[in-house]
Structures are given as structure tokens and as C-alpha cells.
Design a protein that fits this description.
It holds the Pfam family Glyco_transf_8. Keywords: Glycosyltransferase, Metal-binding, Signal, Transferase. Belongs to the glycosyltransferase 8 family. GO terms for molecular function: glycosyltransferase activity; metal ion binding. Residues 1-17 form the signal peptide. This protein is globular. 42% of the residues lie in helices and 13% in strands. It has 507 residues and is α/β, with parallel strands linked by helices. The chain folds into three domains: 7-37, no CATH class; 66-339, Spore Coat Polysaccharide Biosynthesis Protein SpsA, Chain A (Alpha-Beta Complex); 342-498, no CATH class. The protein has 28 helices and 14 strands. The N and C termini lie far apart (49 Å). The chain has an eight-stranded mixed beta sheet, sandwiched between helices. It has a two-stranded antiparallel sheet with strand order 6-10. A two-stranded antiparallel sheet has the order 11-12. Helix 1 (5-17) packs across helix 2 and helix 19 packs across helix 20 (322-329). Bound molecules: 2-acetamido-2-deoxy-beta-D-glucopyranose (4 copies). Residues 105, 109, 136, 139-140, 495-498, 501 line the site of one 2-acetamido-2-deoxy-beta-D-glucopyranose.
């Protein structure tokens, strides 16, 4: 299916309004509009804008039935059917409900007015059980349970989408060939659930959807800040991430070759990004669902997925669901302030500069220099003081060391376990590195300085992320400014998950 209909529609519309144009004039006009639009940005007309929720084909195809699929955390809650609502949406298919509890609790804790929450999960019972447990419910912000609906059955909806079904086949070597099957090493990425977020605009009735990953922590009133956020006609707003460029994800050679033959996913040869365009992070995305549906973004993502499957998984790398989202949007998103997605927390590696700053070189000078680069994350490691953490609306634990992998007490003991950095850049606290380990770290990091390959081999001695963090105090969880001092970011997370809740979730 070709997705260039909007050009033809636009050209035809214009032609009809004026006196009939010659073939040559039409072609000129089309070329002009291509130039102006720099890519596949659809030309936007009123009649398309008024696409209503119910008459969109994909929405009808999704056969979403809220009565059947969703349940409120408070059984007595009134169902909401308000198109003007602000919905905070989460989607996850892991067993642990605690990360979601932390997101719900922290969002509500800071919100002046509670938003609606919609959680789409493969384990609705577990989350509902947790939220309804008396020892958990009593510690939740008042009214929250009335606002949280938990929805299951989404996987069944997703596998009905032909593109996602084909994608799943990629794990079957006898169906797609060994080479293609081998290209996606992490099989779980082929799970249709990774695409769940892209279907939310078709199943949730809302004026705005704030999609959040479950490894975030909300630290300020995101509802007030984003409820009336001006998207400037864009379908989504997200935070730009210049530590990664499109080339990391997209095989541009192949993309250009495919596009020479035909447009796909609404993408033409004149796309509005290039190999060195910064990506955006999909962990925090503000969506205008009506605009999203009108632009057909979900269908665009699906056709890109089909192209990906068809070319034997060579069109992109570094994830399966992130690249088509990047491609479908290109540069057409509103850029949210960096504070809405302070990411990089929980990283495993430390950089040479971090190591030196804390250990060898004048620490405060180094720290200040590092912090001045706030927010740009230019392919460099930064001190483990998360930049902007004290002003963050949303902290994002993108690294492997998720806060729930540390116990609450361990997360709090950072001052005695590791080197402590004060806001003025002084290092205090003892870092009791094991002698042998210390030698190992030194050597490995020295290799990196020599520009020798310094990938994960450095940490080969550690068989788990946690063992690395527990062993080497420098590779510790990042510090977040909190009050007038600093605290382990992970301990902030534990502040939103009561010990009782952690025990209930363990049952
Ligand atoms: C893999 O593909 C083959 C051939 O298309 C098919 O017969 C088989 O049932 C598939 N296996 C799975 C696990 O889907
Ligand atoms: C690539 O795109 C960026 C914007 O994303 C632009 O600033 C830059 O000039 C482009 N580079 C080339 C070579 O076109
Ligand atoms: C990791 O290493 C430790 C000691 O080095 C060992 O006791 C433990 O069993 C290992 N764990 C795994 C999962 O291999
Ligand atoms: C929710 O967060 C508040 C504030 O940090 C905390 O006191 C409370 O224990 C948390 N509730 C649960 C159920 O964890």
C-alpha cells in the first residue's frame, strides 16, 4: 500500500479550487510542494483534521472494548468517557508491578489535579491485586484508585495486526531463513507488545496522552505542565537525544535504495532527516491522539515494519520498535524541554573522565566542566551526578541498573559505600575499593584511554550488573540533587514504593 495519498489529495484539492491546470502545471506544483514540505509531512487540510475518533478504520479494526478489557483499581469508580481528558498511559509486559506503582504514585503525588491513568499490561491481575491490597491502598494519594484503569488483552489485539504477526515470524528460521532470523538477537524485541504504545491513540479516548515508560519517576507536576502544552500542529512531543543519531538505527543505504522504488510508511525519498539527525527518546511522549490518527502514524509504522520484515531485518538495528517510530516521525515532533526526560540514570559504564574526576584530578574543577555540558550528552560519559536531576519533571532510568534491583536500604547507603559528591563539587566519604578490583578497574580504563576497544569486555569479570555495582564503588548509581544535597537517584525511587508495597508485590 502506498501512503502518498495526501500529496495527490492536496494537489487535486488545489487544482479543483482553481481553474483546471495542465499536466505540466500539476507536476510543477507537486514538485514545489515536495520541496516545501521537505519530506513526507502530509499536507494538512481541515477535512482530514476532523477525522473523528470513531470513523477511523484502524480504531474500528482494533475492536477495543473497554468494558471487557479494563478494570478500575477502585471497583466503584465511574467510567470516564471524556474526549477532553489528559491520560497518563503506561504499557508493560514484565511480571513486576512495582515500577508501575512508582510511576502512578509519583505522578499523582505531584499533580495538583489527578489525571486519568491507563495501564495496558499482560498481567492486569497482579497490578490490580497490588493497588487494591489494604496495606498498599492506604498509602496511595486519595482518589488515585478511582482514576487508574488497568487493561489486559492487548496482546490479542496486537497479534491481529498483519505487520506484527509477520514480525513475530522473524524468530522462526524455517519461515524467514536463518540469516534473517539471526539478525534479531534479542527475540523478545519481536514481541508485538513492544508496539503497544503506538496503538494507544486508537484505543484511548483523550485530548492528550502522556505515554511514560515504567522505568521513570515523576518529580513534578507533569499534568499542569503538559495539559495545555502547545504541540504546534505536531502529533507528538518528545525530548531530543543527541547522544544518538539516526545512523545508529537506520541503514540509510538500504533505505534510499528501497525508497527509490516506492514510498513506504508515508516516507518518500525526500525525508526530513539524515544520518546525523539526533534521535528522540520514546520513554516520555506527549501525544495528540486526534492528530496522530489523522496522520495515520500507526499505519505508517506498520508499513515500515512490513518493509523491515520483507528485507530480512536489514533496514534497521538497535531495537525493533524504536526505529520505525523514529522513521515515521522523522523531524516532525515538538521538542520537549530536557527536564521532561532526564535520562541516562542507572548506566553500567563509567567514563574515563568520571573516573579521573573522582579519583585523580582536582575533582571540583572537573565536575564543573562536566556539568556545563548539561543536557547535550555528546557521546561522552558524564559524572554520575545526573545533570538537571534537581529540576527534572521526569527521571528516566535508561541504564541497566533499575532502582528496583537495589534494595531501599542499599540505595540509601551511598554515602558510606561510595564517593559522595556535594553540590559544590567536593568529594567526601570513603570509597573503599577492594585492592584487587581497584587494580582491575585502573587497567581496563587505561586501555580505553589508549583508544583500544573498550566495550563490555572491561566488565567481563562481573557476571551481572548488580555485582559490578556492588563491587566497584565508582561505578555506582548516579546521584541526583535532592534538597540542598545529593542523594542516590535510586533512593528517590524507593521513596514512592513503601516497604509494605514491596512485600505485597513479592507474595
Ligand atoms: C515456522 O515456520 C514453518 C514454515 O513456515 C512452520 O511450519 C512452523 O510451524 C513455524 N514454527 C513456529 C514455531 O511458528
Ligand atoms: C541533517 O539534518 C539536520 C537536522 O536534523 C541538519 O541540521 C543538517 O544540516 C542535515 N545535514 C545534512 C548533511 O543534510
Ligand atoms: C556470579 O559470580 C559469583 C562469584 O563470582 C558466583 O558466586 C555466582 O554464582 C555467579 N552467578 C551467576 C549467575 O553466574
Ligand atoms: C507513595 O508515595 C508516598 C510519597 O513518597 C509514600 O509516602 C507512600 O508510601 C507511597 N505509597 C505506596 C503504596 O508505596
Amino acid at each position: 500500500m502506498r501512503h502518498t495519498w495526501w500529496w495527490w489529495a492536496a494537489a487535486a484539492g488545489q487544482a479543483a479550487a482553481q481553474k483546471p491546470l495542465t499536466k505540466w502545471q500539476l507536476r510543477r506544483q507537486k514538485q514545489k510542494s515536495l520541496k516545501v514540505k521537505q519530506g513526507f509531512a502530509p499536507s494538512w487540510t481541515r477535512s482530514e483534521a476532523s477525522n473523528t475518533y470513531s470513523n477511523d478504520a484502524l480504531t474500528r479494526d482494533m475492536t477495543w472494548n473497554e468494558e471487557r478489557h479494563c478494570e478500575y483499581a477502585a471497583p466503584s469508580a465511574e467510567r470516564f468517557h471524556r474526549r477532553d481528558s489528559f491520560v497518563v498511559a503506561l504499557a508493560y509486559d514484565t511480571p513486576d508491578p512495582l515500577p508501575t506503582l512508582a510511576v502512578l504514585n509519583s505522578t499523582a503525588h505531584h499533580a495538583s489535579t489527578l489525571p486519568e491513568f491507563a495501564v495496558v499490561t499482560t498481567r492486569p491481575r497482579r497490578l490490580l491485586g497490588l493497588l487494591r491490597h489494604p496495606r498498599v491502598a492506604r498509602d496511595l494519594p486519595p482518589g488515585l484508585a478511582q482514576k487508574v484503569r488497568v487493561c489486559g488483552g492487548f496482546t490479542q489485539l496486537l497479534v491481529q495486526r498483519p505487520a506484527l504477526a509477520k514480525l513475530r515470524l522473524l524468530s522462526n528460521a524455517s519461515a524467514v531463513g536463518a540469516a534473517a532470523a539471526a539478525r534479531v538477537r534479542r527475540r523478545e524485541l519481536l514481541s508485538p507488545f513492544n508496539f503497544a504504545a503506538f496503538y494507544l491513540p486508537h484505543v484511548l479516548e483523550a485530548k492528550r496522552i502522556l505515554y511514560l515508560d515504567t522505568d521513570v519517576l515523576v518529580q513534578r507536576d507533569v499534568v499542569r505542565a503538559l495539559e495545555h502544552y502547545e504541540l504546534g500542529g505536531k502529533a507528538v512531543a518528545a525530548v531530543e537525544d543527541c547522544s544518538q543519531k539516526f545512523e545508529k538505527y537506520v541503514n540509510f543505504q538500504l533505505l534510499n535504495r528501497l525508497l527509490k522504488r516506492k514510498a513506504m510508511g508515508g516516507l518518500s525519498r525526500h525525508y526530513d532527516f539524515n544520518a546525523s539527525t539526533c534521535v528522540f527518546n520514546r520513554g516520555v511522549v506527549l501525544i495528540d491522539p486526534e492528530r496522530w490518527r489523522a496522520l495515520g502514524l500507526t499505519l505508517a509504522i506498520e508499513s515500515l515494519v512490513e518493509a523491515y520484515v520483507k528485507c530480512g531485518a536489514r533496514l534497521w538495528r538497535g531495537g525493533v520498535s524504536q526505529p520505525p517510530f523514529l522513521l515515521a516521525l522523522g523531524g516532525r515532533y515538538a521538542k520537549l524541554d530536557l527536564r521532561f526526560n532526564v535520562r541516562g540514570l542507572g548506566r553500567v559504564d563509567i567514563g574515563l573522565s568520571e573516573f579521573e574526576a573522582v579519583n585523580f584530578v582536582a575533582p571540583h574543577k572537573m565536575l564543573r566542566k562536566e556539568l556545563r555540558r548539561v543536557g547535550t550528552f555528546r557521546q561522552k560519559f558524564h559524572l554520575f551526578v545526573a545533570p538537571l536531576a534537581d529540576e527534572a519533571f521526569v527521571l528516566h532510568f535508561t541504564g541497566e541498573l533499575k532502582p528496583w534491583r537495589l534494595s531501599a536500604s542499599y540505595a540509601e547507603q551511598w554515602t558510606t559505600h561510595g564517593a559522595a559528591l556535594t553540590p559544590t563539587g567536593h568529594v567526601s566519604g570513603g570509597c573503599e575499593l577492594d585492592q584487587q578490583l581497584s587494580g582491575l578497574m585502573d587497567r581496563r580504563i587505561y586501555y580505553c584511554r589508549k583508544r583500544a576497544p573498550c566495550g563490555d569486555a572491561r566488565f567481563a569479570r562481573f557476571n551481572s550488573t548488580t555485582s559490578l555495582f556492588a563491587s566497584a564503588c565508582l561505578a555506582r548509581f548516579p546521584l541526583c540533587a535532592a534538597g540542598r544535597g545529593v542523594a542516590a537517584c535510586a533512593s528517590l525511587w524507593h521513596g514512592y514504593v513503601s516497604p509494605a508495597a514491596a512485600r505485597v508485590a513479592d507474595l
